[in-house]
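Worked Example 4.2. Consider the chain below.
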Amino acid sequence: MAIYCIRHGQSEFNAVFERGGDDPLVFDAPLSPLGRDQARGLRDQVAGPAIERIVTSPLTRAIETALHIFEGKLPIEVDARARELLTHSCDVGRSPAQLAAQFPTVTFGHLDDIWWHQGPANEHGVGREPVPVFEARVADFRNWLVEQPDRNMALIGHGNLFKALTGQKLANCEIHLFDKDAEFEPGPYA
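Applying the procedure from the previous section yields the following structure tokens:
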């Protein structure tokens, strides 16, 4: 089994935040036009390996990336453990009902109403997920990944998720082959 880690395309949050400054308050950020192009640009790259399963974070930018890359070829599975470390507005999710209204071909009924980290929030309603909580969640998710049946999987997720899983901080729409036997020191996280 091969697991292809794919970081989402550039989000509207990334497009603003990369220029510097404070959190631009783009909650559950969708892909930017460049991000949509980046995701569609991966179609040929992922056509080679026989992807038999697609798992994604429930954050909008990851779902949109999965949909742009795979164009409904396989059902998309949503797993809240694959979400980003909550540090900014873009990492605050939306309810399953809101997601289902936007993405009717994807199933969200198994998610809790609030599936992202809940904790003390700043004046904008953005909390910070403690790193030990994040790392415990990712360790649980990693254990689940290595126990999956022998099928090639695409995992669409986030920079800090993949840093914790692989030791690599991926660029937008970068693909990295997950090595379940690799040892590395996770963190620090951005």
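Strands lie at 3-7, 53-56, 76-78, 153-157, 175-177. The two ends are 30 Å apart (CA to CA). Compare this with Example 4.1 before moving on.
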